[in-house]
Amino acid sequence: MAYKAPEGKGYADVAAHFRALIKGGELAPGDALPSVAEIRDQFGVASKTVSRALGLLKSEGLVSSRGALGTVVEKSPLVITGADRLNRMEKNGLRYAPGETSSGHRVMLRSVHDPEICTALDLEPAEEAVIRIRVFRQDDKPTSVGVSVYPPYTTAVVPELGEDVRMVKQFDKLYTERTGREVVKGQRTAHARQASQDELNALEIDAPPHVSVSVLVTTLTFHDDERPLGYWEDVYAPGARVPIGE
């Protein structure tokens, strides 16, 4: 494939370029990166700069040296967030990275009692909302549970959210097309908490009832210029490496 580099200046720029390609699924496990000389010419940097960039990617577990094969992409140890998946689809249309799938898709209309979700979506306790759940997997191993919650005014505009089928287009694009209002992402946050039994089951974790299992959770709220439109929560399996703040 063609590797068109931005006007990066140092090894961090080189590393960020290839990291983005790997996270976005444009470079799959087993794919070889260009040679040091090719990367040097592409970015207009010194060979030492390229070596430092590749060393950084190796330290992150994203690539490894394979002798005559050069530098090769490894199976990514990173589990990306729902927002990153949204960014990936906007950039290259790839719903899944190499080896990634999803299962356990469920769509429900339920009363919402969680204080955090009610606050995020301006819902009254016990008000109904559409909840969509799916389990993301890498090489058939569960890595995260994705939960998205949509209030009535969002589903009125995008009724597909309430249908028990996989969405063929992201809700924010449909909402903007139908209302003319831009959808923006709020601040993504992360915190740790104890996993529920449903989450343990979804992540296929067999823990005794008296044992608490801590999980990392990231949350994100979507808005237009008037109100919140959706709340996304990703719950990651213990040990998952999640890129934050990008």
Q: Keywords for this structure?
A:
single chain; 246 residues; alpha+beta; Chorismate lyase; 7-stranded antiparallel β-sheet; two-stranded antiparallel ribbon; 8 helices; 30% helix
Folded structure, characterized:
By secondary structure, the protein is an alpha+beta fold. The chain folds into two domains: 11-73, Arc Repressor Mutant, subunit A (Orthogonal Bundle); 98-236, Chorismate lyase-like (Chorismate lyase, 3-Layer(aba) Sandwich), CATH 3.40.1410. The chain has helices at 11-23, 36-43, 47-59, 82-92, 115-121, 152-157, 171-179, 197-202; strands at 63-65, 71-73, 100-111, 128-138, 141-150, 184-185, 189-194, 214-223, 228-236. Strands 3, 4, 5, 6, 7, 8 and 9 form a seven-stranded antiparallel sheet that branches. Strands 1-2 form a two-stranded antiparallel ribbon. Strand 8 (214-223) and strand 9 form a beta hairpin. Helix 1 (11-23) crosses helix 3 (47-59) and helix 2 crosses helix 3 (47-59). The radius of gyration is 20 Å and the shape is globular. The relative contact order is 0.13. The model is unreliable at 1-6 (pLDDT under 50).
Give the structure's gist in a few sentences.
This protein has 246 residues and is α+β, with helices and mostly antiparallel strands. The protein has 8 helices and 9 strands.
Q: What is the strand tally?
A: 9
Quaternary: single chain
Helix content: 25-40%
Q: What is the class of the largest domain in the CATH system?
A: Alpha Beta
Look at the structure and name the CATH superfamily of the largest domain. Chorismate lyase-like
Low-confidence regions: 1-6
Output the CATH topology of the largest domain. Answer: Chorismate lyase
